[in-house]
Amino acid sequence: MLQSQLFTKTSKDTHADSDSINADLLTRGGFIGKTMAGVYSFLPLGYRVIRKIEQIVREEMDGIGGQEILMSALAPKALWEKTGRWENMDVLFKVPAAGDQEYALNPTHEELVAPIARTFLRSYRDLPFACYQIQTKFRNELRAKSGVLRGREFIMKDLYSFHKDIADLDRYYAIAQGAYDRIFARLGLEDRTYLTYASGGTFSQYSHEYQVVLSQGEDQIFVSIEAEKQGKRIAVNKEIFQEGKTVCPVTGGKEFRPEKASEAGNIFKLGTRFSEPFELQFTDEAGKLCTPVMGCYGIGISRLMGVIAEAFADDSGLRWPAAIAPYAVHIMPLAKSHDEESWKAAEEISKQFPDSLVDDRIDASTGARFADSDLIGIPKRIVISPKSLKAGGVEVKDRMTGDVNIVPLDTLKAEGV
Ligand code: ATP
Ligand code: MG
User: How remote is the C-alpha of 22 from its chain's centroid?
Assistant: First the structure.
């Protein structure tokens, strides 16, 4: 991709209404555009990041047998009345429809997935199964002041699992936790993500949140010191934490350290909370009618983009982990004309790296181009100049570490650039 062809531009100005670090950097870099408070559009660079995050999540969900679907964003009032959430869910967007009807803009999809499952579920042989989607959710959040961390419209992955009994739900829940661990590792967040014990509602003692430590995070978690000593990242949510009383559910330790964090994922054992009102039933081995139990497993895709932006940013801008960067390589020829050797070398290099952004704006000042490159935060920057070519190669800068190396042209690929 030639940078001159990107229809978005970077901007130096911090807008008065860019309410957080992620919104400021992502807006200035041209990744997102604000429609109104808590509502954003994803622009070419930003949507590439979103798609790469989605792909990692998708691969891991497919890996645990999740079948991908796409449920509707609109639902009739009746579905939400069935579970009592038409009245009780304060963030539910209610939309007037034709005649005197009302619809909901779904904030989550238990009310949709349960009746779908009911259509097909007959016997114990149909269980277990799991389906998931990656979709836009709507929540009328009171506070929408954290950029893409808390949207009124946002992208979520939600997986739902169905089981013949609690033992089977427990078995699958552990498998899903494994998939979540892999997702956070692949996103480059392994060292900052804490499996956080939160209250579980009526059915189970705990639900689990995947909290990413972030200095501007909205949540407060309490990290278990004993777990840390054992090389595990475990925390307790603020709501269930009582100084002096709470013990770490994994290690039994009583020492904790508070941290600010953002909840990137949340998994729940739902029991029959939704299968009962929607009358899901199956016949077991003995021919008896039973109600299946469910689990649900969410991840905030667009929130993750904001979390990662904030977690790694430095004073000069964004620093994307390689797995989800908008492009793998930023190629920057410091040529003054298209006849120069450094321009031709850049063209050759770009052929080797299909996932690259080529800064072809040779009329712009070198300082401005470097500043843009730092702001956009592509992991590797390859600078090709007459000077570097004379020194036997190109200059490769690692945006995360700041390390700079001169790498000979013919070994660029081999050296893992
Ligand atoms: P929170 O406590 O932050 O309001 P939640 O517990 O209501 O979130 P869930 O219903 O568990 O959220 O949704 C699953 C995931 O979706 C969350 O872990 C989070 O990553 C993401 N998410 C929830 N609400 C928002 C939002 N308003 N904007 C962006 N992402 C969100
Ligand atoms: Mg949650």
Answer: 13
How many CB atoms are closer than 10 A to CB 217?
Answer: 20
- Rounded CA-CA distance 216/224 in Å is 21
Q: Which two tokens stand for residue 3?
A: 């940078």
pLDDT digits (tens, 9 = 90+) for 232-263: 999 999 999 999 999 999 999 999 999 999 99
CATH annotation of 3-312: 3.30.930.10
List CB contacts of 173: < 8 A, sequence separation 6 or more.
Answer: 161, 267, 269, 295
Q: What is the CATH topology of the domain spanning 329-411? A: Rossmann fold (3.40.50)
Q: How far is the CA of 68 from the centre of ligand 2 (A)?
A: 22
**Pocket (CB within 6 angstroms of ligand 1):** 108, 139, 141, 150-151, 154, 156, 263-266, 298, 300, 302-303
The length of the chain in residues reads: 417
Tokens of 319: 């620093």
- How far away, in angstroms, is 208 Cα from ligand 2 center? 8
Which ligand is the nearest neighbour of the Cα of 238?
A: 1
pTM: 0.97
